[in-house]
Amino acid sequence: MSPRLAAANALALVMAGKASLGTSMPPQLAQVAPRDQALARELAFGTARWYFRLQGLAEQLLQKPLKAADRDIHALLLVGIYQLLYTRIPGHAAISETVDAAVRLKKAWAKGLLNAVLRRVQREGNELLAQLERDPVIRTAHPRWLQKRLKADWPDHWESICAANNLHPPMTLRVNRLRGTRDRYLARLREAGIEASPCRFSVDGLTLQAPRDVHQLPGFAEGEVSVQDEAAQLAAPLLDLKAGQRVLDACCAPGGKTCHILELEPGLSELVALDLEPSRLERVRENLQRLQLQATLKAADGRELASWWDGRPFQRILLDAPCSATGVIRRHPDIKLTRQSEDIAALAALQGELLDTLWQTLEVGGILVYATCSVLPEENTRVIEAFLQRHSGARQLPVEVGEGATQPAGRQLLPQPEGHDGFYLARLVKLDKG
């Protein structure tokens, strides 16, 4: 399978709402030769990133919309337009290979259509886009519902949020302080010819000048370092961990924060790592094994206490709540295609349910840290404000992370072009059982 065909197949499934590009290599992209996988991934992710600009251009140039049964041809067209406008692939190669891919899809009838549209994009694409950019959806390459929400929630920042979402994310590392210091690992990187710089806000973080395969990182296999965005590295320190504590990491997969907790305080009496899907816990288990750490893994719905809680209270809880992931769109650009406006209220309700249930397991005097990778207040400050109204025994604690905007409840970090992802953090203490 060619990289272009694989990218189009993967994108077509996303467009149909039947798949996500996810964090690992989707099956459709994994079918190409290893040497071509990077290109296939770039074509799929890049097309998703700029989908609304590419779609606007396609609609302008197609005489009539393609049928639902030809979603694969439509995706292939968008992949072709992406190559012409956003890559250094020679135009003739982008056009000919895109056209040839239609034959492999057993839709030779589409060759002429693809060829005609792509050649016009080659001649006039940038000029046509400039005319279409009066529409903020096309200018920002964000779905209208999200563009409007961002504008309403962040009137002074919404365009910079969209711009950051459209960039390639930096690759950030978390140095395992049980195995060495950040300065020492930075020196090891430089000895290996890998340029990096310390993060501004995470004392364990390093940002690489250019992303690279983790297996090229010195000591990665031995657990000296992990990949984790700087904003995510700010959550575990807010727990104020002490030896002997029993800690719950709820919605823990893929385990980055689980491992960070254990690196910060190896003397915990127990860390319970909870997630809904057993398959997601496999990734947590792999990370724990690589870092030579131990936790109690449980697969269950956090709202169903009888299925997982033994009645012993926790002194600390980290709830990394399921959310819209609107703060990490640059890492998962297909969120623009798969997430819908109506999802947000449902997610906020779920977040409130998880908070109410897990609060029952927290010891009086204990601390709960609530985190999401969302930039939408409906999932963040409003969830915590509502929780505080429901629970008289809960009080806010300061969120001192050196970055972000103070909210009525908690602190919001917006995505930064060369820095951290969008992230929200709140910190609550339980004064009594109310």
Q: Could you describe the 3D structure shown?
A:
- The chain has 434 residues and is of the alpha/beta class.
- The protein has 3 domains: 3-141, NusB-like (N-utilizing Substance Protein B Homolog, Chain A); 171-227, Sun protein, domain 3 (Alpha-Beta Plaits, 2-Layer Sandwich); 230-430, Vaccinia Virus protein VP39 (Rossmann fold).
- The protein has 17 helices and 13 strands.
- The chain has helices spanning 3-15, 27-30, 34-49, 51-61, 71-86, 91-104, 111-132, 136-140, 144-153, 158-165, 182-191, 230-233, 256-264, 278-291, 335-338, 343-359, 381-390, and strands spanning 172-175, 196-198, 205-208, 225-227, 246-250, 270-275, 296-299, 314-320, 362-372, 394-396, 405-406, 411-413, 423-430.
- The strands form 2 sheets. Strands 5, 6, 7, 8, 9, 10, 11, 12 and 13 form a 9-stranded mixed β-sheet that branches. Strands 2-3-1-4 form a 4-stranded antiparallel β-sheet, covered by helices on one side.
- The model has no long low-confidence stretch (mean pLDDT 95).
Question: How would you state the average pLDDT, rounded?
Answer: 95
Question: Can you tell me the CATH superfamily of the largest domain?
Answer: Vaccinia Virus protein VP39
Structural class: alpha/beta
Radius of gyration: 23 Å
Q: Specify the helix fraction band.
A: 40-55%
What percentage of the residues does DSSP assign to strands (E)?
5-15%
CATH topology call of the largest domain: Rossmann fold
Which CATH top level class of the largest domain fits? Alpha Beta
What's the helix count? 17
End-to-end distance:
60 Å
Architecture (CATH level 2) name of the largest domain: 3-Layer(aba) Sandwich
Query: Main β-sheet: number of strands, strand sense, barrel status?
Result: 9 strands, mixed
Poorly predicted segments: none
Number of domains: 3
- Oligomer category: single chain
Give the overall shape, derived from the CA principal axes.
Answer: globular
The ordered H/E elements are HHHHHHHHHHEHEEEHEHEHEEHHEHEEEE
Domain SAM-dependent MTase RsmB/NOP-type: 161-431
Enzyme class: transferase
Subcellular location: Cytoplasm
Family: Belongs to the class I-like SAM-binding methyltransferase superfamily. RsmB/NOP family.
